[in-house]
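Bench notes, afternoon.
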Amino acid sequence: MARRIFYGWWMVGLCLLVALIGWGLGLFGSSVYLHALVAGGVASTATVSGAITLFFLIGALVQLGVGPAMARLGPGPVVLAGAMAMAAGVGGIGQATGPSSVYAAFALIGLGWACLSTTAVSTALAPWFDRHQGRAVALALIGASLANMLAAPALLAAITTLGFAMAMAVTAGGALVLLGPVAVLMRRNPAVIGQVPDGTPAATSRSDDATRWRRADALATPALRSVIIAFSLGLLVQIGLITHHVSLLAPVLGASGAAGVVTATGASALAGRLFLAQFADRMDVRVMAIAVLLLGTASLAAMAAAPGPTTLSVASVAFGFTIGNVTTLSPIIVRREFGADSFGAIYGAAASVIQLISALGPAAFGVLRDLSGGYALPLGLGAGCDLIAAAALLWGRHADHSRP
């Protein structure tokens, strides 16, 4: 009799689709929506930028409830709710006629983002893996890297072919068609279908406690605080650079050169996630995260110090290797150190703080650039933030992980 494939790997594939849609229509789609809304005279750049900030803030706050909701209901209903909110928001953008409707549409996208991004994906997978947990999360979040490379060109092509309103309506419908069945196929944990974590009875937890961690107790530990500090700073810098990357590159490399480097950076981010999937379960993930942040420090410092064509190109691709891993490593560390049973509530709280702080990245880069007349200052300070983030993870690695 053929051996039944462990359903956890099907869950990874389902979560990859969730990440593809969530990141594609959320984070990476936002730049396309901004361009189309401003070009169409619906709202000003400042108005749409404010609505995008609202989207991030709503997503950060709602993530507090995503983990507990998945613990009570399972991942399927949460993903379905996220798909419906995301589809309503994207469809609403196509019908927007002024600032109020733009803000309403992005608020719905924020609700969808909370239910389809890192917290949702990592919480859905937490009960399914122990020994292969790092690989599972890294593989699922390849969907985010694919969204980075595919979403903007696909949305722009749809708008060119169908017009803005129809393109958004078709995109919204496509998201529901894809994610509706995904939500139905998702399962709460291996026990409900007679399986065990990792698919083998020999799988044993290296981090789960006999009793569940309370959120307040976890937040009082240096272990979790160090993760929040490190990845808040790391993602603030990352999102800031992603938002301003073309503006940084184009004056030196030209439009086509900038586009080529941005594409290469996205490919490097994908390579970084594939590397993490290969080695995450064999290494100390805190040490890996420290190495990633130090690479980010070196890349940003190089761009600040010598912003010529070669340095900008090479350092951008090097920084790209960190992009996927900075996003992926925080849930892996929390899952490994606090266990599957406590993961949803604990990581939901951590992710909310991380996203609230990281949402300031685009504005911080923009203000510092305007004040200094160039990108050397924000890049240099970004390098310093990554260095502080690495130090925070090192501090947390050596701190007492027991309950206070």
